[in-house]
Amino acid sequence: MSENMQQLQELDTQLAQSEEELNKINIEVSTLTTQISENEQKLSNAQEKYDKIEVDTNNLQTWERRFFMLLDREYKVPSKTNSKINLKVVPGHFATTSSHINFYMDMTTLKVRQKEAYEVAREMAKEYQYSKPIDTIVCMDGCEIIGACLAEELNKNGIMSLNQHDSLYVITPEFDGNGQMIFRDNLQPMVRGKNILLLLASATTGRTIARSLECIQYYGGIIQGISAIFSAAKEIYGEPVHCIFSTEDLPDYNTFTPSECPHCKNKEKIDAIVNGFGYSEL
Ligand SMILES: [Zn+2]
After folding, report:
1. Distance CA 184, CA 275 (A)
2. Ligand 1 center to residue 164 CA distance, Å?
3. Which of 2, 156, 160, 250 could tie 133 with a disulfide, CB 3.0–4.6 Å?
4. What share of the chain is helix, strand, coil (3-state, %, to 5)?
5. What is the pTM assigned to this prediction?
């Protein structure tokens, strides 16, 4: 009997040990399960990232292809008065804020390459010899380098400036969240009661010029001249737009309201959205 009891006790002990081991194994299994599920999550995150990169790469490749296709179509139109000034144009289907156009004009180098900007300024300055006083040049569309060169040329040509120190101001307006052109308090004294030359890269419908003129007049500026690298408009509010290139240099140039654009009616894709600063492809 006592032998049986002893055997039973031994079995009990063994059972307890086995249960303890089973518990340990269960804990290990549960830890492993957690790890597996964590790893699965990581794998799925990585897959998601990979997919996104693949889409980005594809988009980038498409963009690059279309960019080079656009550049392939680019050609140069030389200025009739100065052979050092060339307007780069790309035919296509482009959208500006207010119209659709069939030519994009790339004025980047004319605006930012110092020698080209200087030639542009020299041509522009010819329109202002001795005629009117100019105190401030208001630069739109990233035309600040041309503006600085133009100020230098006007000084050389003996243009009258009513400013103290006999120096011109070259300023850039700001645009608020609604696209309204504004001059901050520190710039306002350079506009109020000053003779203003408005300088911009290109004008298609003339709407941008009209809005800029209204703004300059609102701040008390006196418009003495408008100069653009390209303008389709000959005059705005009775003020002539002096330009180096006009629609005569680009006989096929056309501008349409978006609702009447024949390219849109033909279901042609828009190549890029353009504004005074350049273009962004779609
Ligand atoms: Zn269109």
Report:
1. 23
2. 49
3. 160
4. 45, 25, 30
5. 0.72
